[in-house]
Amino acid sequence: MVQSVAAKDVTLRKLKQNFGLQMSQDSSFFPEWLDRLEPLSEEERHLLDRVQANFLELMEDPPMLENTVKMVVLAPLLDLAGFYHKPFRIETETSVDLEMQDEGTIIRGRIDVLVLKNRLWLLAIESKRSDFAVTRAIPQALVYMLSNPETMQPTFGMITNGNEFLFLKVSQYRYAHSRLFSLLNPECELHGVLQVLKLLGAEAIAR
User: Fold this and answer.
1) pLDDT at 2 over 80
2) Would you identify the CATH topology of the domain 3-206?
3) CB-CB contact of 111 with 29 (8 Å)
4) Where are the domains positioned within the chain?
């Protein structure tokens, strides 16, 4: 009998054991969060400064729930990245199944936000409440990325709790992550987050 387990309950060790997933130590594996980042316009920088100010204001009465994080922080970022317009498409609460054949177990979950270009997955986004540690959601996000039916194409992910942002890349059962972007740092690190999102979008259009 096939058993099911929630994606949020899967461990990184389990993914490594069942899918041969390995973390890449090669700096050239995930250059997208570092290389060729275009400068933002003054208007974009101003809008992101407002987003950060709104978030910090609301954080004076924590915790900020997941839906609030999506509304206050994530929605403006997706807008500025151009993901609400063609050739991109947004899906929310997309159901995914990932089968672990050796154990007869299916991992089930729902991707909070999925950005697609035609049928190709560009970015799987996992959003958490503000008091949830982003790093705890890495296995869950990797499950969603491994569920991409286009297994030969690299898949990107982003985890956020509104305050912190972490990008992930999976390609041929290897993965790597970016540094942690945090709104607690002196400069507005939403600028860097948007630069990465815009680069991913531009590369997807160029394919």
Assistant:
1) no
2) tt1808, chain A (3.90.1570)
3) no
4) 3-206
Strands 120-127, 155-160: pairing kind: parallel
CA distances from 4 to 19, 55, 90, 144 (A): 17, 36, 27, 15
Q: Is 52 left (phi over 0), alpha (psi -120 to 50) or beta?
A: alpha
Share of the chain above pLDDT 90, in %: 81
| Residue 153 φ then ψ, to 5° | -95, 140
CA angle 53, 182, 117 (to 5 degrees): 90
Report the C-alpha gap between 195 and 158 in whole angstroms. Answer: 13
Predicted confidence (pLDDT) per residue in 17-70, tens digit: 999 999 999 989 999 998 779 999 999 999 999 999 999 999 999 888 999 999
Average pLDDT over residues 77-103: 92
Smallest Cα–Cα separation from 45: which of 180, 184, 196, 195?
Answer: 195
Contact between residue 177 and residue 34 where contact means Cβ atoms under 8 Å apart: no
CA distances from 20 to 13, 65, 169 (A): 10, 34, 15
Q: State how far the Cα of 167 lies from the Cα of 30, in Å rounded to an integer.
A: 10
SS3 content of the chain, % helix, strand, coil (to 5): 40, 30, 35
CA contacts within 13 A on the Cβ side of 23: 9
